Amino acid sequence: RCEERFAKSKLVHSIMRHVAGTCGVDLEQLNIEVGWPLYRLYGHAYDAFQRSIAENEGIFERLVDEVHGGQTPATLTPEVREALELNVRRRMTPQPIKIRADVEMTCFAYDGVEHIKTAMRAAGAASSADCAVAVKLVAPPLYVLTTQTLDRNVGIEILTGAVEACKVAIEAAGGNLRVKEAPRAVSEREERALQEELEAAEAANREVGGDDGSDDDYEEGMSVDVDAAPALAL
Length: 234
Description:
By secondary structure, this protein is of the alpha+beta class. It has 2 domains: about 1-90, Translation initiation factor 2, subunit 1, domain 2 (DNA polymerase, domain 1), CATH 1.10.150.190; about 95-210 and about 220-230, EIF_2_alpha (Alpha-Beta Plaits, 2-Layer Sandwich). The protein is built from 8 helices and 4 strands. Helix 2 (about 25-40) crosses helix 3.
């Protein structure tokens, strides 16, 4: 609890100091007229700033009315107010969390590629209004399911449902799905690594597509490895 309050206070102080410095106002006076009164009105200036983002609450109007008797304090100039609002949005707006699951999916039945596409669509159908599920082929038989959300637990729940929907669909068609890594929050570094894998797979597919060959090389009715099909993505 104390650590959380300290972290909040540190962020508020950083915002106030930055605004005071860029707008050329005295930091202590800005705190006296704006910062500290917000602590009294909302319990913490951090909570005031957060409500201004989440609920679009007019915290400065309330400050002027309830603390300064309707008179705008000298330090709360239009420039300072704009700088505060800009920095609060920039520093405190929640960032979407990326959730990802890695699965291995195969289907050697007739029309296996179509069955895999159907399973991918089933996963996508598990999306919610706030969590869109995407499915991409990395390299056969590895697929990744991803979503972004502000709520980690909700994102994991949605993606878990998407994996299950995909599994049910592919197994109904005679295929198989194995969860390699369950839904979890991933870092920017992991996302960059995935993007590099996808780009490498795409480059490899282009090279294969550019190889010389003719239809005479294939016999009618010969079996085709479904997992060697081009990259699929929904």
